[in-house]
Amino acid sequence: MMACVSLSSPIFSPRQPIVPFGLNSANRRRIGLSPIGFGPIKKNRRARVSVRRADSVVFRNLDADDFRHPLDKQNTLILRAIPGLNELGKALLGTVAEQVMLLENIGTSVLVSKNQLPGLHQLMVEAAEILNIEAPDLYVRQSAIPNAYTLAVSGKKPFVVVHTSLVELLTQKELQAVLAHELGHLKCDHGVWLTFANILTLGAYGVPEMFLHKFIWFLFSFQGDAIGMIYRGSGLGGLIAQSLEEQLFRWLRAAELTCDRAALLVAQDPKVVISVLMKLAGGCPSLADQLNVDAFLEQARSYDKASSSPVGWYIRNAQTRQLSHPLPVLRAREIDEWSRSQEYRTLLSRAIQINTVQQA
C-alpha cells in the first residue's frame, strides 16, 4: 500500500507522480494551488533547531479517532461501503507501481538522519513522539515547487519527502507542522484510498480512467455476464467512474482536515498551522515577514459570508467539488475553530509534559 500527500503547486511534473500537502486538483488534467501560511523567515542565517522544545508534550495513548474530523469519519464509512475497494486498490497498484515511486524518490533525494541534516531529523523524531507513532524516513528533494508528501509501501518503512523550496518558505515550527500533517496520514492509516485519490490527480499519466474502469468492471463481474455487457455497451462505466472519483476527492478533502489537526497537536499553536496554509496560498520568503495570520482568518470569514447565500453556496460547491484539498481559507477557519473547542482542550489535558533542556 502506498499513501501520498502534498502541498501546493499549479503544475506537476511528470517526473513527480505525487500530490502536494496543500495542493488542489480541479480535475484529472489540472492541479491547482492550495495555500497555507505563517510567520517570518530569517534570511541569510543558519537556522537553529532545538533537539526538543522545553515545553514538549507527548500523547502516550493517542488514537487516530481522538482527532479525526467528523467529515473524515463520515466519508470513510461511505468508502468502506463500496465492495472490494480496498482489496482492489492494492491489486491494481501492486508492487510494481510501489517500487517505481519508491526508487524514484530514493534515487533523487537526500535521506535525512542524525548525521545528515540533523535538525530536520530531530523535527521529525519529535513530531512522531508527540503523536505516538514511529518516525518514518525523511527525504529532502530539490524542487522549486513547495511540496511535501508521504509514501507508505507494503512491508516497507514509510517515508516522507519535503521539497527544498518548502524548507526555504517555512520557519522551523511551521516545517514541523507540515511533517506532523504527513504523520497524520500514517497515524490514521489513510492508505490505499489516499493513493487512489492522488493517482486521480495525476491526469497527465492517463492512469485514472484505466484504474477506475478496471475497478467498475471488477464490481460488475460479480453480477453476471448480462449486466457486464450492459456496463460495457452503455457508457455506464464512465458515469460510475466519475462518481467514484468525486467520492474519493470528497474523502481526501476530509482527510486533509484531520491531518491539519495532527499538525496542531504537534505545533500546539493554531497560528503556526494557519501560517503554513497562508504561505502556501500566497507567500514567498521575501514577503514572509509581512504576512498576517489574523488578516488571513478575517479573509476566511469573508469567504464564509460571501458563500452563505443560495447562489454563493452553489458557486462554492462547484468550486470545491473536484478539488483534492479544501480551500486554504476553509482549512484555516477549521483549524482555528477546533483550537478553541472542548475536544482539543481535552486532548491537551491528556498530554504528558516532558521537561527537557532546549539545545541549540
TrEMBL record:
rRNA-binding found in the keyword field: no
GO molecular function terms noted in the UniProt entry: metal ion binding; metalloendopeptidase activity
InterPro entries to which the protein is assigned, alphabetical: Peptidase_M48
Keywords for the protein's UniProt record, in alphabetical order: Hydrolase, Metal-binding, Metalloprotease, Protease, Zinc
Swiss-Prot/TrEMBL cofactor(s): Zn(2+)
Keyword Transport assigned: no
PANTHER family: CAAX PRENYL PROTEASE 1 (PTHR10120)
Protein name in UniProt: Peptidase family M48 family protein
Source species taxonomy: Eukaryota, Viridiplantae, Streptophyta, Embryophyta, Tracheophyta
